[in-house]
Amino acid sequence: MKSNNRVRIFDTTLRDGEQALRRSLSKDEKLQLAKAIAKLNVDVMEVGFPASSPGDFASVELIAKEIQGPTICALARAVPEDVIACGEALKPAQHKRIHIFIATSPIHLEKKLNINLQAATDKAVEAISIAKEYTDDIEFGCEDATRTPPEDLCYIIEKAIAAGATTVNLADTVGYTTPKEFHQLLSHIKANVSNIDQAILSVHCHNDLGLAVANSAESLLAGVRQIECTVNGIGERAGNCALEEITMLLSARKDLFGLYTNIKTELIKPTSELVSSVARMPVQLNKAVVGGNAFAHSSGIHQDGVIKSSITYEIFHPEQVGISKNELYFTARSGRKAIAHFLTQTGCPCEDQEINNIYNQFLQLADKKGQVYWYDLTSLYYKNKVNLCDKRYSLVSAITKCASERAISVNLVLQNNQKLQSFESDSTNLIEALQNLKITNEAIIIRDLSLEFAPENFIYNAKLSITLNNKPIYGEGYDEDPNIAIIKSYISILNIINMLNQIREHQHSLQSA
């Protein structure tokens, strides 16, 4: 492929993305994410704003030392001290870039900086000249470019390139523009900046009106060859262009764009999960590409189509982004064929009459429960073959107390097959204390917790999820005390595991008979 068909991916998860978080990431957390993002094979990683704090300077310096491969970039205002801080922090980097920005719109120049365009241009040129003492790779960014008169943009961009900028970035800082407007603006710049061919044109789009990916995509049709983006689209306010979305758009629509990136797409999902976990920012279920429902199918018509051929309802395979396979969600909308397919795939083949009986039971359960999980269907299959005990454990009493400022103690009394058993554990939080109780031989690691309060009846609803043998199990519990609701949710998971163990024992007995 020709190099002018390659789109450079500029990841700013650790700079713009971090600005959206309620707490700053530690130096070690930033390095952990930097290593994962580097493995994605991004071209450039913007990892901080060294002049903003000693901590950010140290983080940028550490990443510059540790990360090989991508160009390591740091952000600076068009201020000499900022540029020098970037240059010093980036010294250890194998490949380095200094990203200098200044606002160009009349709104920002007048209301924020209190200067005119010529003064902003002079500051930019001076900053670029200082940056050249540290690196030849210099990016110049126009903040609020989409609210800047086109002739003003052309003027400052031409001066910046002449001063030594090798990449020029136009920021739709408040997510204001539309694809058509953006295309026109970019075309105007390419036609009226005499030295534009000496720099790579880049865009940085925000998502305030939900157009960050659309505007970024349209910019590529206007000749842009660098997209600034973040994993999961995290960033200021409504976020940034999502790395996973723009990457897979180019992959899925090669017919339209004829462009490519060097991203290792099979690492997209695990990287998304890591960023979500470390940043403590959940990914919404219906998030494109990486959301929990991105490859989930619950409608009977859709499930039947996907079973026959995945391309009926999937525009690319989940494995392409690191998801093991698509998932059929079972609800009252699911059809008989989907239930039969699942049971056959899991080693539970059924005759027509048996599947009819199971399907009728499934519909009753779905109407009552809403979503039916894989272990519910397994239970329906086996419940007429094995005398399953679906509630082995029941809560008799629970005491949670703070053992110290940083520790919690949990004492449970459970009824287990007519016997009372006591379990006690101490830890730094309730979740870890529950995991340490050793009620079952299974290693239970709680992945997610949600806690909702219903003010109309003063009840907490706790939902936990775990992964057992690479399969999800979900628990739910209700109580006026949030801690007890969490404990009840945990016990419901124990009962599901116990039921699955009974089924496994039955299968082993059949094999040995």
UniProtKB/TrEMBL annotation:
<keyword id="KW-0432">Leucine biosynthesis</keyword>
<comment type="similarity">
    <text>Belongs to the alpha-IPM synthase/homocitrate synthase family. LeuA type 1 subfamily.</text>
</comment>
<comment type="pathway">
    <text>Amino-acid biosynthesis; L-leucine biosynthesis; L-leucine from 3-methyl-2-oxobutanoate: step 1/4.</text>
</comment>
<dbReference type="InterPro" id="IPR002034">
    <property type="entry name" value="AIPM/Hcit_synth_CS"/>
</dbReference>
<feature type="domain" description="Pyruvate carboxyltransferase">
    <location>
        <begin position="7"/>
        <end position="269"/>
    </location>
</feature>
<keyword id="KW-0100">Branched-chain amino acid biosynthesis</keyword>
<protein>
    <recommendedName>
        <fullName>2-isopropylmalate synthase</fullName>
        <ecNumber>2.3.3.13</ecNumber>
    </recommendedName>
</protein>
<dbReference type="InterPro" id="IPR050073">
    <property type="entry name" value="2-IPM_HCS-like"/>
</dbReference>
<dbReference type="GO" id="GO:0003852">
    <property type="term" value="F:2-isopropylmalate synthase activity"/>
</dbReference>
<dbReference type="Pfam" id="PF22617">
    <property type="entry name" value="HCS_D2"/>
</dbReference>
<keyword id="KW-0808">Transferase</keyword>
<dbReference type="InterPro" id="IPR054691">
    <property type="entry name" value="LeuA/HCS_post-cat"/>
</dbReference>
<keyword id="KW-0464">Manganese</keyword>
<comment type="function">
    <text>Catalyzes the condensation of the acetyl group of acetyl-CoA with 3-methyl-2-oxobutanoate (2-ketoisovalerate) to form 3-carboxy-3-hydroxy-4-methylpentanoate (2-isopropylmalate).</text>
</comment>
<dbReference type="InterPro" id="IPR013785">
    <property type="entry name" value="Aldolase_TIM"/>
</dbReference>
<keyword id="KW-0028">Amino-acid biosynthesis</keyword>
<dbReference type="GO" id="GO:0009098">
    <property type="term" value="P:L-leucine biosynthetic process"/>
</dbReference>
<dbReference type="Pfam" id="PF00682">
    <property type="entry name" value="HMGL-like"/>
</dbReference>
<dbReference type="GO" id="GO:0005829">
    <property type="term" value="C:cytosol"/>
</dbReference>
<dbReference type="InterPro" id="IPR000891">
    <property type="entry name" value="PYR_CT"/>
</dbReference>
